[in-house]
Amino acid sequence: MTHEIYRINLPLPLRMGRVNCYLLQNQSGYFLFDTGGKNNRVELLEALEQHGCKPGNLILIVLTHGDFDHIANAAYLRNLYGAKIAMHPDDAGMAEHGDMSWNREHGKLPLKLSGLLFGFGKGEKFTPDLTLEEGADLSEYGLDAQVIPIPGHSQGSIGIFLGESGDLIGGDMFDGSQDPALNSIMDKPNVAKQSIDKLKGYPINTVYPGHGRPFQFARFLENYFLFWVRHQTVLCLSNSENVRKIRKSSTDDRPVSAISFLTEDDLVHLGRCLSFNSLHHQTPLEVRHRG
Ligand SMILES: [Zn+2]
How many angstroms separate the alpha carbon of residue 51 from the centre of ligand 1? Predict the structure, then answer.
């Protein structure tokens, strides 16, 4: 079944950047992945109408995770369009209680306040009609897609893999704002790494991220661990003895240490980059990043 994916890119409040929703159209009708924040409701409705999506032909609202910049229009659209809301049960409590810290370990206080920021009030709360767990089958709704749980950013983050085209609706596991990368906000970085390892098992072509532009998954993988290198481990690169020390002293559940995030293979690869660097007196990590 062929499909068309339209990216709807909406502004976040307080110039906090932009967020994506994706509208998929196939022979069965329309499917909306994520719904933006309450502040961009009007723009969203205009975009839906522009693409021919209206009450009666929107079948499902699928939420990649429970953050309010992605779910704040879900209840409103359900009422208006008569579509069902689907999301992973591990994030459903965020929508039900209006609390982004629900089922998260880090950043409890700022997350609790984010309802105000994104205008997620009483009227925005909802209970999903469908819960999507590993391997959930959406074919009865006319969508040939596989649900892949990819926890990390949140416990209930999911990817929706459209096998025929190799498209992956990836939510906030990914960020395409600049060079394709992991989202810099991860509740559980080590779990995110496992999720990426899981995704490597799928023939993914294009990733549609929660923020930024869609990109090739292969391009993301090239950048993937260099992302962590760039942000957090640059200081450790020059001395493998240091790398070992830091790995030993880092605890697994804290997001501060990217070293604990790297596998032995990653470190071997790092070593190669380093010897390349010292041989050629240039910075291959940077070159690769820009390339
Ligand atoms: Zn987001």
Answer: 23
Q: Tokens 């549609």 correspond to what residue?
A: 208
Distance 172 CA to ligand 1 centre (A): 5
Rounded CA gap, 246 and 254, in Å?
13
Q: How many angstroms separate the alpha carbon of residue 64 from the centre of ligand 1?
A: 10
- The DSSP letter of residue 229 is I
Instruction: Indicate the burial class of 256 (C-beta count within 10 angstroms; 0-12, 13-18, 19 or more).
Output: exposed
Tell me the C-alpha distance between 114 and 98, whole Å: 9
Read off the CATH number of the domain in which 196 is found.
Answer: 3.60.15.10
Query: pLDDT tens, 1-12?
Result: 799 999 999 999
| Structure tokens belonging to residue 165 | 């085209």
Do residues 143 and 26 lie in contact, with contact meaning Cβ atoms separated by under 8 Å? yes
Q: Which residues contact 152 (CB under 8 A, 6 or more apart)?
A: 173, 186, 187, 188, 189, 191, 192, 193, 194, 195
Q: Mark whether 172 and 231 lie in a shared domain.
A: no
pLDDT tens across 200-234, in order? 999 999 999 999 999 999 999 988 866 555 544 44
* Surrounding residues of ion ligand 1, Cβ less than 5 A: 67, 69, 172, 210
For residue range 136-162, list pLDDT tens digits in order: 989 999 999 999 999 999 999 999 999
What distance in angstroms lies between residue 196's CA and the mean position of ligand 1's atoms? 18
Count of structural domains within the chain? 2
Same-domain pairing of 174 and 98 = yes
Range of the domain at 211: 3-221
Model confidence, pTM: 0.80
